[in-house]
Amino acid sequence: MSATRIKHESEARQQEEKRIADRKRGIIVLVLRYFLDLGYTESTRQITNETGVSMEKVDVADNIDLWTVVQQFEEFYEMKFQRRPKLYRVLKSDEAKLTRGPSMAQALPSLAA
Question: Residue 104: what pLDDT?
Fold first, then answer.
């Protein structure tokens, strides 16, 4: 492999990692704003402590909020698949024991803004 090709692949990988980190940060900011608007200040404070994303440093853009994102997703999904998306499911009692604590997928990422 040539040095130029390695350099380009490394830059592409770094750009992809930055894009993923920006997406995660954006989701956290949307959730933080949504929780603040609902009055969940303690939850917001806890998420801020765990992720390092502070509403004192960043806020959602003027043209977007979590409610709108979910609403547009539901409309798109229904248009594409002719049925409403299932955003949550009711757990059976034995499943509920497995999901306590941090998310089964992963804990909140630390994304200092």
Answer: 45
